TrEMBL record:
The Glycoside hydrolase family 31 TIM barrel domain, residue ranges: 368-644
Feature: compositional bias, Polar residues: 12-38
Gene that encodes it: LOC118406717
Classification via InterPro entries: Alpha-glycosidase_related, GH, Glyco_hydro_31_C, Glyco_hydro_31_TIM, Glyco_hydro_b
Cross-referenced CDD domains: GH31_NET37
Region of interest (Disordered), ranges: 1-74
Name of the protein in its database record: Myogenesis-regulating glycosidase-like
Protein family according to the UniProt entry: Belongs to the glycosyl hydrolase 31 family.
Length: 752
């Protein structure tokens, strides 16, 4: 590989053994056979002695020492045979001169010895470095690495093997095309490179020897900006804005475990410098960010990762370099992330055209025939557009039973028939749990369809948000067939149109869980829950988890947002979460109900600003209804839904169809149009719909002005007022946006 180097050490020259000056060479060899030598002298003075112990001087010594006069005679010191003899001095003169000579020799000896000691004290052997490809450089002593792009600009640096002892010097075990360093009894790292047309990728593979050693590599996130990874409680965009304790990289319910990673995730991180980090599926991965560093660690002990064969932890990943952030992301989408089979259809476009109405949290779990019918009637009577009505938490007899509670819903078939007459599609809430007091739990226990506890001889009981129960074993074909059959019968018996599959996170699996088929990583549970169960129910289906299911085109709902303004799953978190889900390959985003999912009625101003944002997203969903806030709010909702119909729906459906072929998100960051625009890299309160519409909502209370950045390279026409056209690459300072307004701009210089 061009640019590869190997390390050679040249020992003392055998033809110069009579000299004690030794020179070592660090030699690097490139593909063309050219050698570069770094000479490292180690000085030992050449001081031959005469038989009586006096130092003999050579002619060169004479010329280099102005302090010594050369004499001859009985008391003379003879330095060399070729020194011309002179008259013998008198005894009275020779003794002082001999004394001076001894003093000079002693002085020189002290000087030389002092110099040697000084050099030895301050000298550090130059650190060897190993290069591979055109851009990856690893320094073997400090374990620091750097990565450059094709133009020679450093785009990433960091440190590998951060837990390896600094006192241990690694052995070189590489070749011309491979960097390999081995720390005896600890670990070995292999690095290879592959050049492709669009990118160059570097493959890093750790082999560990000690069960107590956890390989960990860290990347300095600055000066770039980072995206991807997972849905989080505080959704930082870009990622380097926040600090996160290192935890297992598995899906969790952020409502119960806010310090974990969320329901939608993938082992993919992206830098604005044009670098992608892609971690292997079989790595027991832990991820943390601190002090603007992104760290990856492999570790089994006290983690949810199964290790039945007591294997040593592996940390294997790839670094791919492209011309810019968009180019390298395109490579990952086309070659790494699962891609939708283009024969599949887009999700139900009705859910993009018309609002979804959900009973939770407005009606809570105390729903019944009367409350559901009244809810639907109020939607119709207030002339609010409607598509799907989702009957949520609380309709079944027990959690896990596939029926309607006859006390609450004495005639569910009649109720659902009435909803359909009012032009609603009806969807039901579902989940993988069965509480231990349900009939389904007993039936599944008898058939062996539940995930077992660590001992493997009984179902593992878990605590979830509605009590205690167990979860379906999605790795078992028989269990899946049984679960799908009962769900399908529920929909068919009562005339329902779709289902929302909630749950599926690893955090709700029993500790040390046992399934029929052993997953490589725990999140294969989420993968199979979506691809093997939810996908069986057609384009109207929605889910709340995503791991390696980008090839299943369905709506994915964000973890429930809190009814607050903040960035901890509040209003400010909606845009960063939508952008992150899009980068991870999930374009069909459902942000959840307008105003959030808290059980208490949201603040009216928060509700307004939330609605203004939501109408521009692929799905708009209501639970708390506008009429609860008064007639003015109903009229405002009608106005916003009309704006959505005029501006958003058609391009959204077009982009949804294109995403099946391109893998590109519907909701895009500003850098999508300007991948080298440094300001666009950090904007987290604006977004693009495709390449044509820019949206900049107000996200703070008691605010009617905001700064709006327009990406460089394009012209933008105001949608809010006057149709004024602005050049891109500028910040519109203190742009006025009143309470019942939202700022948006349309790109006018080129086609979409």
């Amino acid at each position: 590989m061009e640019g590869s180097q190997e390390v050679l050490l040249d020992g003392p020259n055998q033809q110069q053994d009579n000299q004690k000056n030794t020179r070592f060479q660090v030699q690097t060899v490139d593909n063309d056979g050219n050698q570069q030598h770094l000479s490292v002298p180690h000085w030992t003075p050449n001081i031959p002695t005469s038989p009586n112990g006096a130092r003999e001087r050579t002619e060169s010594d004479t010329s280099q020492n102005p302090f010594v006069d050369v004499e001859e005679g009985p008391n003379a010191v003879k330095f060399s045979d070729n020194v011309k003899e002179e008259t013998t001095p008198s005894d009275s003169l020779s003794e002082p001169r001999e004394l001076r000579l001894k003093v000079c020799v002693l002085f020189l000896a002290v000087l030389i010895i002092g110099g040697v000691i000084t050099i030895w004290y301050f000298y550090e052997e130059p650190e060897l470095e190993a290069d591979i490809g055109h851009t990856y450089r690893l320094f073997e002593k400090t374990k620091l690495f750097s990565l450059e792009n094709g133009r020679g600009k450093q785009i990433l640096d960091g440190r590998v093997g951060v837990h390896l002892p600094d006192s241990i010097v690694p052995y070189w075990c590489g070749s011309k095309n491979t960097i390999c360093l081995e720390w005896k009894t600890f670990a070995k790292i292999h690095i290879t490179s592959t050049a492709m047309e669009e990118v160059e990728c570097y493959r890093i593979v750790w082999e560990t020897y000690k069960p107590t050693f956890a390989p960990e590599d860290c990347f300095n996130m600055l000066p770039g900006h980072w995206y991807g990874g997972a849905e989080m409680d505080t959704q930082d965009w870009p990622l380097e804005k926040g600090n996160r304790t290192m935890v297992p990289f598995v899906s969790s319910d952020l409502r119960a475990e806010p310090e974990g990673f969320g329901s939608v995730l993938d082992r993919y991180f992206l830098s604005s410098m044009g670098v992608a980090v892609i971690i292997d599926d079989n790595v027991p991965l832990h991820v943390g960010t601190s002090r603007e560093k992104l760290c990856l660690k492999a570790w089994y002990d006290r983690s949810p990762f199964p290790n039945p064969n007591s294997a040593q932890p592996m940390l294997n990943y790839s670094l791919c370099v492209g011309s810019d952030v968009k180019a390298v992301h395109k490579y990952v989408v086309d070659n790494v992330l699962p891609r939708v089979n283009t024969t599949k259809s887009v999700p139900d476009t009705t859910q993009m055209q018309l609002p979804r109405w959900v009973t939770w949290p407005y009606l809570k779990s105390k729903i019944n025939t009367t409350t559901v019918n009244n809810y639907a009637a109020s939607i119709v009577n207030n002339s609010l557009a409607h598509g799907v009505l989702e009957i949520g938490d609380g309709y079944s007899t027990k959690y896990g039973d596939f029926d309607f509670d006859q006390t609450k819903f004495p005639d569910p078939v009649g109720m659902i028939g009435q909803l359909k007459q009012e032009q609603f599609k009806v969807s039901l809430w579902a989940h993988p749990f069965a509480n231990y007091d349900s009939m389904t739990f007993v039936e599944g226990l008898r058939k062996g369809h539940w995930v077992n506890s660590a001992k493997g001889n009984a179902p593992g009981i878990v605590k979830w948000w509605n009590g205690y129960g167990t979860v379906i074993d999605v790795t078992s074909k028989d269990a899946r067939t049984w679960f799908i059959g009962k769900t399908r019968s529920l929909l068919q018996d009562y005339g329902c149109d779709g289902v929302y599959f909630d749950g599926g996170e690893v955090s709700y699996l029993p500790a040390g869980f046992v399934t029929e088929s052993e997953p490589v990583v725990p999140d294969e549970y989420a993968t199979m829950y979506v691809s093997e169960i939810a996908a069986e129910f057609g384009p109207s289906t929605q889910v709340s988890v995503g791991y390696k299911t980008q090839d299943v085109p369905m709506f994915v709902r964000m973890t429930e947002r809190r009814s607050t303004w903040g960035d901890r799953r509040g209003l400010k978190s909606v845009i960063p979460t939508a952008l992150t889900m899009g980068i991870l390959g999930y374009p069909f985003v459902n942000p959840g109900p307008v105003g959030g999912s808290s059980e208490d009625m949201p603040d009216p101003e928060l509700y307004v600003r939330w609605m203004e944002l939501a109408i521009f997203l692929p799905v708009i969903e209501f639970s708390w209804p506008p009429w609860q806030f008064g007639e003015e709010m109903v009229q405002f909702a009608q106005k916003m839904l009309k704006l959505r119909e005029d501006v958003v729906i058609a391009p959204t459906i077009k982009l949804a169809r294109e995403s099946l072929e391109t893998g590109e998100p519907i909701i895009r960051p500003l850098w999508w149009l300007a991948p080298k625009d440094n300001i666009a890299h950090v904007v987290d309160s604006e977004f693009l719909i495709g390449n044509t519409t820019l949206v900049a909502p107000i996200l703070a209370p008691s605010t009617t002005m905001r700064d709006i950045y327009l990406p460089s390279g394009y012209k933008w026409k105001e949608g809010l007022r006057n149709g004024v056209v602005h050049d891109g690459g500028q910040m519109l300072k203190d742009y006025q946006v009143n309470l019942y307004e939202i700022a948006y701009f349309t790109r006018v210089d080129t086609e979409a």
